[in-house]
Specification:
By secondary structure, the chain is α/β, with parallel strands linked by helices. Helices cover 54% and strands 11% of the residues. It binds cobalamin.
């Protein structure tokens, strides 16, 4: 399908001025939004990541691609609001200390919201202390942690240990995700679950509440 390639190319090439017009038109055309996100937008980010790893592009280009993708996602967000009327439970989400990659987290939030969860997004680069303060105040059912860097992953373990010390581990389910995270890591750090993508995050959250 031509439009998937067009969207993918637009994000890879950082066409942040054009993306909104393109996505708005596709929404009008009634395209499959899940396919648009998965095969157009996320696929683009994989290519961007490869190009960065091969030194074909650098941080500024990667950032422009990210901005482009987020602009597109912002248009899709209101359309993912689900039919659910009653709230399923409260989820606190953030990226861990040292990590500012938030597109995946934002996407997961969109889908969870669409599935009826109340999302409290604490943003990016949360220190364990900042996070604990919020968690104690909000008392969510679920805590979702996102990490895209192998160097920030150990922060997830720290958060879980700190929850344990604070006596909160039994009342809050912890789910983890992000490109370098996998089930093995999630099990090893004592998380309650791992989700590979936004759809899995929803399935997982549903098993918790
Ligand atoms: C865009 C991007 C950036 C942007 C981020 C902008 C933003 N607002 O997010 C910018 C330019 C800022 C950036 C900076 C850096 N980046 Co960068 N970046 C990327 C890139 C290309 C795409 C990430 C992305 O958005 N993917 C798309 C989303 C949708 O996927 P996702 O995040 O994986 O999320 C999905 C799942 O993982 C899951 N999920 C995510 N979170 C959660 C949470 C839960 C609870 C659950 C259940 C599921 C879940 O669901 C999501 C939806 O399907 C990746 C490459 C890649 N392919 O991942 C590199 C990449 C992650 N970056 C990398 C690096 C090295 C950096 C820098 C260190 C570069 C530098 N020298 O400065 C900095 C670090 C900044 C920091 N401190 O965080 C490396 C990491 C390598 C490593 N092994 O750690 C990568 C892999 C690129 C590469 N191939 O080398 N980056």
């Amino acid at each position: 399908m031509g439009y998937l390639k067009d969207i993918k190319d637009a994000i890879i090439n950082g066409k942040y001025k054009e993306i909104e017009g393109m996505v708005s038109q596709l929404i009008k055309d009634g395209v499959d939004l899940k396919q648009l996100i998965d095969e157009g937008m996320i696929a683009a980010m994989d290519v961007v990541g490869e190009k960065f790893a091969n030194s074909e592009i650098f941080v500024p280009e990667m950032l422009v691609s990210a901005v482009t993708m987020q602009k597109g996602l912002d248009l899709i967000k209101p359309l993912l609001k689900g039919e659910e009327t009653k709230t399923r439970g409260t989820i606190v989400m953030c990226t861990v200390k040292g990590d500012i990659h938030d597109i995946g987290k934002n996407l997961v939030n969109m889908m969870l919201e669409g599935a009826g969860f109340k999302i409290i997004d604490l943003g990016v680069d949360l220190s364990v202390d900042q996070l604990m303060k919020q968690v104690k105040e909000i008392q969510p059912d679920i805590l979702g942690l996102s990490a895209l860097l192998t160097t920030s992953m150990p922060q997830m373990k720290k958060v879980i240990e700190t929850l344990e010390h604070a006596g909160l581990r039994k009342t809050i389910k912890v789910m983890v995700g992000g490109a370098p995270v996998d089930k093995k890591f999630a099990d090893a750090i004592g998380a309650d679950g791992y989700g590979a993508d936004a759809a899995e995050a929803v399935k997982l959250a549903r098993t918790f509440v």
